[in-house]
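Subgroup meeting minutes
Present: P.N., E.W., G.H.
Scribe: E.W.

1. P.N. recapped why we're keeping a running log of single-chain structure predictions: easier to compare across weeks, and new members can see raw inputs and outputs side by side.
2. G.H. added today's entry (72 aa).
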Amino acid sequence: MFASVNQIVILGLPLAMVFGIVTFICLVTTAVLGILVLKGLYHIPFKWHMRMAAATIVFAVIHVVLVLLLFF
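Output recorded in log:
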């Protein structure tokens, strides 16, 4: 069942790669939010930084599971 999940292709990319790209985008967004608040360039509530960090962790875990399923 899980092996068939890895066969899903979105825009010509395997599902694991798509989740890797989404994870990287979430990571960069989290960092940018933190830098903007730290430097005082823009006021963004801290809860948005925490939400993006949580989303990054969720997508990273899914990405890792999909990659591990490719090998086992």
